[in-house]
Specification:
The protein is an all-alpha fold. The protein is built from eight helices and no strands.
């Protein structure tokens, strides 16, 4: 997914120079993207990536046309209501309709965030951002273990437990991986660059 969407963006939308290596990567990654477009465990997962790219490319245009608060509030409420309604009926996070309206909800929320002063919660945002990558890596395994293996019988309690546990575990791991280790790696790279610069 990372390779496929990246190559589509840079080679086709940004018109960057193509090479044999990029073409090979595109063919290989397109197989995965095509597979997750129609079926598999996370069916329609490709749509999330494609809608994500679409939002990124068209967000400024959306923000210009729907700039004021009221229309964005209405769009956000309607889009979220549709998402909740779809989920209550199909219980499928990869549903096409859910994906479309989730995209609308995100774009309207991003526009609304321009009217919010985040200074008071900057510290909390920084803490959450500091373990976001680790959370991305570990959350699915933890949620899958709890939700699919009947560790907790009540599904609502199971979801809340999985949510909290994912964040706690990701936070603890990230204190070394994303905080200490990243700083050490950054220092090593800077030292190496300095050595190379002196030698040259």
């Amino acid at each position: 997914f990372y390779m496929f969407c990246g190559l589509v963006f840079f080679c086709y939308l940004k018109k960057e120079k193509k090479s044999a290596f990029k073409i090979i990567l595109f063919v290989i990654s397109a197989i995965v993207a095509w597979h997750y477009l129609y079926g598999s465990r996370g069916r329609h997962l490709t749509l999330y990536w494609m809608f994500g790219m679409f939002m990124m490319l068209n967000y400024n245009r959306y923000k210009e046309k729907v700039a004021s608060v009221v229309p964005n509030v209405l769009i956000f409420i309607c889009a979220m209501a549709t998402c909740i309604s779809v989920q209550m009926k199909v219980v499928d996070g990869y549903n096409f309709v859910f994906t479309v309206f989730l995209s609308l909800a995100i774009m309207s929320f991003l526009t609304l965030s321009n009217y919010i002063n985040f200074e008071r919660v900057r510290t909390q945002i920084n803490v959450m951002a500091s373990y976001s990558f680790t959370l991305y890596l570990v959350h699915y395994s933890i949620m899958d273990l709890i939700m699919k293996h009947d560790v907790i019988k009540n599904k609502y309690i199971a979801f809340c437990t999985a949510f909290v546990l994912s964040n706690v575990i990701a936070f603890l791991i990230s204190r070394y991986s994303e905080v200490v280790l990243r700083k050490q790696l950054k220092n090593k790279i800077q030292q190496l660059q300095l050595v190379l610069k002196v030698r040259m």
